[in-house]
Write a sequence for this structure.
């Protein structure tokens, strides 16, 4: 399979690799996917409690190059956005930006799920009672 | 209408220490044609282009002579006689011909076929098709080391069994099935034994008489011969095996396989077998040496690396390893100047990880993390060292990126985690 230049770039120079303190009140952690399915993403956000702006984001991913690129891109995109803005990021935008082929769309779905899961975790820590947001297609995509 | 032809060029470069890149280490998928094989083939495209079935002129005779020499060369490699060699378009056809040919010919005797779950799809899907036509197929499991249990086979044979088809060497994990014992057991029970010998022939010794093999599939391009040519060994006595043709036509190859013979390909296959007869023993030592060097170099520097399948009964050039916490396709991306293959779902069309590794009881997670190295005739020690270095540095880099590695190092039992996608 031929990879797009952007996928290759994120794979070779992944942005924001690492971990934040998952016990911090300001940090939300999303862990999505499963080892049996061949991809697991951990995406973490650090949110400013006054402004709700995501000031930092980190990821670690077990998965193919497209999965690594999707999560790397996701951390780039959420940084500087408010939590509500970050929730608007759609997997289709990731597909477009990275020119993912159809067989790799599930990687983008997983990245969107990871953003939502991280935000959900942060909201839960900070007293929100919203139900867990799961985007359509998560079940079928694996 | 535009006729846009998409081509991928193979650009060759050199590593700092003078190794030609990319390095080919996927010799179970295919092998380059040995220059000595090519040299033998060339006249049969030009001067000796005749149809081997043309019986009344010199062009036909020259082609036929080339074909008959090849038949002898192939027979010699496996201890057969030339008349027992039938030429085909490749091993997929040989497998189809052997299994469907026996199934049809022996339908009166029985309708039961035994195979194993780790067979090549050319065997498995042929058996599946026969099930649609009323045949009964037993798919034997394999043990953790990849080998079939002979007691399982013994129990599976019944009075309706007409054929056992079990591969000699596995294409993914290189594991050598005990084909001599299987053949003995089959003959004791009056059952025919076919073996897909594609990966084994020319790599490890095989003798169809001593090993009680009745039918064996052979491929040209796995043994430094050309693609598009193969052979099927069909035993002529003790017992005399009969098969129905699956391709109808001019009655070539004693009626078993119609179609004008691929003379240059056949000549190439013959030469490849002749070279193997001469060089197999020495080459096996060379390959096993390189393979063990690769294994030791990787395993001495990385933890949580698992070899898939037994090391004891294995093709000398095969190494199949799972690198825990690293996904196979991303690893292939990192070592993009090395041609190997992975059992990861992402590298297959089906999005399922390797069914062979699953059959060994390797978890899906480790199947996704597997890499198959196929070392061949033209690989060198310097290449092996380069590949080992690239693999080690890439695995280390990807583990730094892996949430699973991080969790495992923190002492989290990954099996106890409730994964969101399950």
């Amino acid at each position: 399979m031929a990879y797009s230049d952007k996928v290759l770039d994120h794979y070779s120079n992944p942005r924001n690799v690492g971990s934040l303190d998952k016990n911090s009140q300001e940090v939300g952690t999303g862990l999505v996917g499963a080892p049996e399915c061949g991809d697991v993403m951990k995406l973490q956000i650090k949110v400013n409690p006054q402004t709700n702006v995501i000031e930092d984001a980190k990821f670690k991913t077990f998965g193919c190059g497209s999965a690594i690129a999707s999560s790397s891109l996701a951390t780039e995109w959420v940084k500087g956005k408010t939590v509500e803005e970050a929730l608007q990021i759609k997997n289709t935008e990731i597909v477009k930006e990275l020119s993912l082929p159809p067989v790799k769309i599930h990687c983008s779905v997983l990245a969107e799920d990871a953003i939502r899961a991280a935000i959900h975790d942060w909201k839960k820590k900070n007293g929100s009672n919203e139900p867990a947001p799961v985007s359509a297609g998560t079940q079928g995509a694996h | 209408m535009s006729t846009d032809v998409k081509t991928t060029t193979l650009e060759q470069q050199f590593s700092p220490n003078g190794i030609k890149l990319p390095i080919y280490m996927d010799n179970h998928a295919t092998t380059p044609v040995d220059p000595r094989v090519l040299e033998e083939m060339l006249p049969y495209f030009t001067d000796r282009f005749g149809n081997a079935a043309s019986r009344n002129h010199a062009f036909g005779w020259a082609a036929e002579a080339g074909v008959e020499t090849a038949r002898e060369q192939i027979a010699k490699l496996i201890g057969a006689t030339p008349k027992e060699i039938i030429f085909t378009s490749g091993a997929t056809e040989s497998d189809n011909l052997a299994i469907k040919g026996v199934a049809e010919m022996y339908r009166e005797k029985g309708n039961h076929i035994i195979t194993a779950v780790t067979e090549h799809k050319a065997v498995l899907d042929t058996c599946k098709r026969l099930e649609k036509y009323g045949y009964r197929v037993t798919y034997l499991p394999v043990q953790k080391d990849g080998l079939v249990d002979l007691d399982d086979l013994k129990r599976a044979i019944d009075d309706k069994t007409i054929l056992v088809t079990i591969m000699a060497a596995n294409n993914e994990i290189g594991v050598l099935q005990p084909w001599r014992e299987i053949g003995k057991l089959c003959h004791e029970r009056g059952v025919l034994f076919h073996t897909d010998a594609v990966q084994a022939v020319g790599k490890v010794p095989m003798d169809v008489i001593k090993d009680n093999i009745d039918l064996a599939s052979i491929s040209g391009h796995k043994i430094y011969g050309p693609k598009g040519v193969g052979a099927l060994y069909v035993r002529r006595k003790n017992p005399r095996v009969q098969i129905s043709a699956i391709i109808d036509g001019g009655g070539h190859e004693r009626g078993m396989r119609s179609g004008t013979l691929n003379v240059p390909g056949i000549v190439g296959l013959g030469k490849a077998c002749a070279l193997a007869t001469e060089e197999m023993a020495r080459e096996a030592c060379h390959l096993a040496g390189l393979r063990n060097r690769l294994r030791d170099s990787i395993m001495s520097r990385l933890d949580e690396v698992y070899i898939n399948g037994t090391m004891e009964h294995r093709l000398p050039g095969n190494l199949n390893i799972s690198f825990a916490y690293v996904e196979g396709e991303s690893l292939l991306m990192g070592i993009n100047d090395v041609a190997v293959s992975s059992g990861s779902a992402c590298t297959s069309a089906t999005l399922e990880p390797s069914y062979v590794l699953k059959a060994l009881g390797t978890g899906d997670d480790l199947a996704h993390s597997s890499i198959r190295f196929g070392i061949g005739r033209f690989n060198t020690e310097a290449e092996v060292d380069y590949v080992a270095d690239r693999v080690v540095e890439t695995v280390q880099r990807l583990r730094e990126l892996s949430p699973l590695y991080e969790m495992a190092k923190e002492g989290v039992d990954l099996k106890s985690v409730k994964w969101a996608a399950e």
Observations:
- Chain A touches chain B at residues 3, 8, 11, 14, 17, 19, 31-42, 60-65, 67-68, 103, 110, 113, 117, 138-139, 142 (CB under 8 Å).
- Confidence is low (pLDDT under 50) at residues 136-142 of chain A.
- The beta strands of chain A are 27-34, 39-47, 54-62.
